Amino acid sequence: xxxxxxxxxxxxxxxxxxxxxxxxxxxxxGGAGRSSLGSGARWAGWLFAxxxxxMYAVFELYPIITAVQYSFFDWDGVSAxxxxxxxxxxxxxxxxxxxxxxxxxxxxxxxxTFLPVLLALVVASIxxxxxxxxxxATARTMMFLPQIIPGAASxxxxxxxxxxxxxxxxxLGALGLSSLQxxxxxxxxWALPAVGIIGTWLATGLCTLLLMAGIGKIxxxxxxxxxxxxxxRIQQFRAITLPGLRQEIxxxxxxxxxxxxxxxxxxxxxxxxxxxxxxxVPGVQVYQLAFTENRIGQSSALAVVLSLIVLxxxxxxxxxxxxx
Length: 324
Description:
Layout: E1 2-4, E2 7-9, H1 11-70, E3 73-74, E4 82-83, H2 87-94, H3 96-128, H4 133-144, H5 151-162, H6 167-174, H7 191-217, H8 220-228, H9 233-244, H10 246-261, H11 265-270, H12 282-291, H13 296-322
Antiparallel strand pairs: 1-2, 3-4
């Protein structure tokens, strides 16, 4: 017999009870050790992230806060600033030039978003049908090539092609459509669509690759079952491909809408907002207000409005595509 916790028990039972007590003690100590280790790991994680957080605060948060502050002042960047209240924000929506730049940005969504996504859906569906791996890889490479070219360089190349003696007008002449030839980037009516086509060319490749990756995740047995049920290609596309690409389409729309609303390099390098103000967009307008006209407060107000517009457009879209 042995005594354990004031009780008398057989030796084998006492050994079992004492062993269980030791295990509970080890578990309590182990849990405390893991809790201490977890706390240390969390602090270590913050220390590793600290350099990135500092860079983000210095180069992102601080400029945003400063821009909001400047937007409430009339300031030329040199002399003393004077309080302006909401006057700079009022001008954004009352001055025709500033308001037109916002409207042009929304028009570019047609070329930067809707056309690339539609073309990418068609191209991705066609490439899915290609049985040859080499041919499929070649098609994907050709579609992605515009993404490795900087937007500024693409704008310069397209400016050459849009010139009166450029490739576009030469092609129209070869097709017997000489009546359509024009100085595309110098035409008040066609300059904005011409710039938009550059955006379409740049965005289609990225959207195609994203959608092709999404198509690769769709179970091929769904297409086989639909084919056995007599569904044609269009019906398979509507019933299987589109629902299966919901998240990828959401990503494409989000990226391209931001590119349209915040476009700068393509417009600046091709037209600088001209002719007149026919291709002026907020990104170029912010630059010109700040560095050409020395209207720092007005430039900051337009930048803040542009940021709010992007958030107001993007957040509902992301919520819509997250919902099932």
